[in-house]
Structures are given as C-alpha cells and as structure tokens.
Design goal:
- This protein has 272 residues and is mainly β.
- It has one domain: Beta Barrel (Porin).
- The chain is built from one helix and 16 strands.
- A 16-stranded antiparallel β-barrel has the order 1-2-3-4-5-6-7-8-9-10-11-12-13-14-15-16.
- The chain is globular.
C-alpha cells in the first residue's frame, strides 16, 4: 500500500456540469504522481498538492499551510497524521484483514480543519450527494463538530460493498451506512488512498474512498443522527476508453415520468 502506479495515468480532469473548465492537472515523474494543480471555474489556481515518496511509496502530501504524513508497518499503511502548520489535527489508525482495509479509527486533536481539499476528486460526481447537517429543530444543539469516528469496510472481491461509520458528536453519535454497486471497468484512481474523503464525510461534504477496483454506478446512504434520519441514493454512468472512464454522468430517475436522465459532469484526459 502507498504505491500508486495505474496503467492509464490521468493528465487532466474537466468539470462539465457548469460550463467546461479545467478542474485538475496532474504531473507525473516517470511512474510516480508528483503534483496536482486544482483550478476554480475562472481558471485561477485554487491549490497545489505535492506528493513525496520513500522510493516508490507515498510518505507525505504537502499543501499550503498543511500536510498529511503516511506511516507504515512493513508493507501496510498503519497511521495517517494530518497537520495544520505544526499542529496535529487528526490521527487515523488503519487495520487490515487479508490485505484488505477493514477498519479506520479517527481521533481529532484540535478543532478546525485544513483548507487543503486533499484529493477531493476521489469519486466524480460525489458532490451530488448532500448529507446536509440537521437543523436545530432536528438535533440537539448547534454544535455539530466531531471528536472521533470509527469506519468499518465490508468487501465484495476487490470492491468495498458497504462502509459503516459511527461519528462521535457533542450530543450523540451519528451513524452512516454507505452501500455501493460497481461496473466491470477500471477505476483510474484505484489504490490512491488518502484522507480527504473521510474528513469530508465527517464535515457533511461526503466523498468516497478510492479503495475499489471498479467504478461506482450507484450509492445509497443512510444517515441517522439524534432524531434526524434520511436515506439518499444516486447513480452514475460512464463512457470508456480501454476499460477506463473518459466521461462521467450523474444519472437520476424522474419519479413523475419514470424517465432516466443523465447529465455529463466530468471528463478525463489520460497520458497515452
């Protein structure tokens, strides 16, 4: 773990849903990803992530004013520490069963977060999933910050079938269950494990882990917190080149007409 060397290497990712513009530009040093530049819709640079290695294994992701360190025990990634400046923000302890990620325990050391958007590209279109925090009438109090979380992964072959989370909030524990269905084609970010998807779920901007080999075609999320509970589901479709996605569509079903509509949201350009 910690080595990311896909057969098809991403060059650029374009946002297609609000007028086409460059969202990310990836730079490679031979087989290793060295840098990703993230852009705003006006084409100005939003952030840069630099990837540092010990030989071929990722050891740090460096951002402006923050970074994440990856610590290994033999071949397995065991701990990820995230920092803002020199202050430890969060610690992630990872456990494995038969070489598969089985559990992550998260402890928060300080309030606040980074502005790094660390690998916010994990699953295209995940911004269509809105686990909005409950209103004051639906939950106890206004403080929705978290201090700890536990994540359990259930696998079906090389894909995560279920992801179950419990998040410690000031007044109670929030429970989330993610259920996934996949296609048979290759996820170009398979094996590119990092932190931001976990952070963003905890802060109500859910993304998804890049553990799985194939591309997600549907996701269902159940969110239970205090007296607040809801379930959301979305589907995705793709165009492919050599079994890799080149275009990603957010697909939904009109319940009045029962007609399916797919909206192009992202496109990939690869290095050939």
């Amino acid at each position: 773990m910690g080595v990311y060397n896909p057969k098809m290497k991403i060059d650029k990712i374009y946002n297609e849903k609000d007028g086409r513009y460059l969202l990310e530009q990836w730079q490679w040093n031979d087989k290793l990803l060295s840098k990703i530049d993230f852009y705003r819709s006006n084409e100005s640079l939003k952030a840069t992530h630099t990837y540092l290695y010990d030989e071929n294994r990722l050891t740090r992701v460096q951002m402006e004013g923050s970074y994440s360190d990856f610590i290994y025990d033999g071949k397995e990634l065991r701990t990820i520490n995230t920092y803002t400046g020199s202050q430890l923000l969060e610690t992630y302890q990872l456990s494995f069963k038969k070489d598969k990620l089985s559990h992550i325990s998260i402890k928060r050391s300080a309030k606040g977060g980074t502005d790094s958007d660390l690998m916010s590209f994990f699953i295209p279109g995940s911004d269509h999933l809105s686990l909005s925090r409950p209103s004051s009438s639906e939950s106890k109090g206004e403080n929705y910050d978290y201090s700890a979380a536990e994540m359990d992964f259930v696998w079906d072959g090389d894909n995560v079938q279920y992801l179950k989370m419990s998040i410690t909030r000031p007044d109670s524990i929030q429970h989330l269950t993610f259920s996934y269905v996949y296609d048979d084609n290759m996820n170009p970010k398979h094996g590119f494990l990092s932190l931001y998807p976990i952070q963003s779920i905890l802060n109500d901007e859910p993304q998804y882990q890049l553990c799985s080999k194939n591309n997600i075609v549907s996701v269902m999320v159940t969110d239970e917190y205090d007296i607040f509970s809801k379930t959301e589901s979305f589907t995705y479709s793709y165009e492919y080149y050599k079994n890799y996605p080149t275009k990603v569509y957010h697909t939904f079903l009109n319940k009045e007409t029962w007609m399916q509509d797919s909206t192009l949201i992202y496109s990939y350009i690869y290095l050939y």
